[in-house]
Design goal:
Blueprint (H helix, E strand, L loop, with lengths): L1 H27 L9 H4 L10 H4 L5 H9 L68 E6 L14 E5 L111
């Protein structure tokens, strides 16, 4: 009986120590940082087959670097409709390059400088653009499903792309143009699509998000001050801890939203206070 009691006591103490260790580990974790595994989250996104006409325009990394070396501000690199899938261009300077209609699925562009570049109609499924510079870049109808743009800079960029389930944590979208320009779009109304994307801790201050599709996206602790969200689709969006000071929600589609701990809720337009 005494041995049984001691065994139970030791088991109890062991469980308490284990619980304390687990709690301690959780307590030490940066709880405000996202913990979703991007690879697992985008696993079901299928990369489209590369058409033969693009395969016929396949370039090696060395060939691309040569083209970039021979380019200049007056004569930017011309890489229209090239096959650059799966290549490693980390930290490469593509500044001002014409990459429209190019295929860069699964390409590594982390830390690359793509500022001022033309990425219209490009395919960039699951591309790694972590920490890349895309300031004032153009992305009309760019397919960036499952792409990683965490900590990237897209300040002043024009983004009418598909960023479904993309990782945009900590990215800079300050004054970016992501909304629909109803007066100047020859191909019809185009705007950002970013369903189920992660904008946690991102800076979207002053960004145009009008008529965008952001359903079930996460803006946890993001800065949306002075952002324009008119007519945006915002069903299921998580705004926990976000800065919404002077944000415009007029005519936005809302429902099942999380506005816990938001900053500047009383200074928004279009939300029921």
């Amino acid at each position: 009986m005494k041995k049984t009691s001691l065994s139970i006591l030791f088991l109890f103490l062991f469980m308490q120590i284990l619980n304390f260790k687990v709690y301690g580990d959780m307590h030490d974790m940066p709880m405000d940082m996202p913990s979703v595994d991007q690879k697992a989250y985008t696993k079901k996104i299928s990369v489209p087959d590369t058409p033969q006409k693009v395969k016929d325009a396949t370039l090696s990394k060395q060939e691309v670097l040569k083209i970039l070396k021979n380019s200049s501000n007056k004569k930017p690199a011309y890489l229209w409709r090239k096959n650059l899938n799966n290549l490693d261009f980390s930290n490469v300077n593509f500044k001002g390059a014409n990459l429209s209609a190019s295929w860069m699925n699964n390409a590594n562009l982390s830390g690359a400088d793509l500022s001022g570049s033309n990425l219209d109609i490009a395919f960039m499924y699951k591309a790694n653009l972590k920490g890349a510079k895309l300031d004032k870049a153009s992305m009309f109808s760019t397919q960036m499903l499952g792409a990683d743009l965490s900590m990237a800079s897209l300040e002043g960029a024009t983004i009418a792309a598909d960023l479904y389930r993309a990782n945009l944590r900590g990215a800079n979208f300050k004054n970016a143009k992501m909304g629909a320009d109803t007066k100047n779009q020859s191909m019809g109304i185009m705007a950002l699509k970013a369903k189920k994307a992660f904008f946690d801790n991102a800076d979207l201050s002053g960004a145009d998000l009008s008529r965008t599709d952001l359903e079930y996206a996460s803006f946890k602790n993001a800065n949306l001050s002075n952002a324009n969200l008119e007519f945006a689709k915002l069903t299921g969006v998580n705004f926990d801890g976000a800065n919404l000071t002077n944000a415009n929600f007029s005519n936005a589609e809302l429902g099942a939203n999380n506005f816990s701990n938001v900053i500047g809720l009383d200074k928004t337009t279009g939300l029921k206070k």
